[in-house]
Amino acid sequence: MHWILTVPADFSLKELLQRSRWLLLPPFSPCRIPECLERVERLSSGQTTAMNITQTPAGLQIQVELHLNAAEIEELSQKTWRMLRLGETFTPFLERAREDADLQAAIRQGVRFLRGADFFEDLLKALLLAEMPLNNAAQRLAQLVDRLGDPLPANPTRHALPTAGQVLAQEEITQRILGAERGTTILHAARYYQNHDQQLERLLVTLPPLPDLLMQLNQIPGMTHSARAYLLLALGRYECVPTTPDLATRREVARFDQWQPWGGLVYWLEHAPQ
């Protein structure tokens, strides 16, 4: 079955995929057709389905292999809304960026970055990306997904992202895949998420002041400067530049400050992994 999701007038799935190649980590998977997004998703009802997202003149077409009820359709629509940042507007930034010679080339590939279906997915990926090269992070994450995530009934070789509970239920496997130290960090973070999931999932809605948000993120076990930077990008807090004076020249820091409240977005457009 499939349905159409209305999108903002300036949204382009093609541009988002161009901008986010480095974020197409499991459970996202290569699509059989160009300019589409595909992943396996576990629903709160317990069902697991493959979902395929393409853009049509009418909006985003979401196609699944199961027959879903109204609540399940709404859940997948909300997850798609989150993953593709459909609630964010970049018009004020783009109007200014089009006049900046240094950014004109960058914005041609779009300014939206892909993110996870929920905070735990963003947290898990942030902790891995902060600790290892992109290819290594992708391999470890793929192993976690294959070993711990719910299998797709129609193709058991494909899996959904494991929940925090599933990670915690398989501590030995988690540590075997990630190593003792990194695995322990992920387990502590998963346990923290499990105990504070509602609070963390609402961060996109409550929009706390930046000092309060940083304080909440710093309470998560294993949080480092780099991991926090990835999470702030996922949360759409573009006013936070993920760098410090010892990692950038004063000239660079001053340039990012001139772009506030978009300084962090400028940073990622120029420094994101390729």
Task: List its salient traits.
TATA-Binding Protein; five-stranded antiparallel sheet; alpha+beta; two-stranded antiparallel sheet
The strand line-up of the biggest sheet is: 1-5-4-3-2
What CATH architecture of the domain at 119-207 would you give?
Answer: Orthogonal Bundle
Task: Calculate the mean pLDDT score and round it.
Answer: 92
| Total helical segments | 14
Strand content: 5-15%
Protein model, in words:
- The chain is α+β, with helices and mostly antiparallel strands.
- Among the domains are: 2-88, TATA-Binding Protein, CATH 3.30.310.20; 119-207, Endonuclease III, domain 1, CATH 1.10.340.30.
- It is built from 14 helices and seven strands.
- Strands 1-5-4-3-2 form a five-stranded antiparallel β-sheet, with helices on one face. A two-stranded antiparallel sheet has the order 6-7.
- Strand 6 (151-152) and strand 7 form a beta hairpin.
- Helix 5 packs antiparallel against helix 9, helix 5 (119-129) runs antiparallel to helix 12 (225-234) and helix 8 (171-178) packs across helix 9.
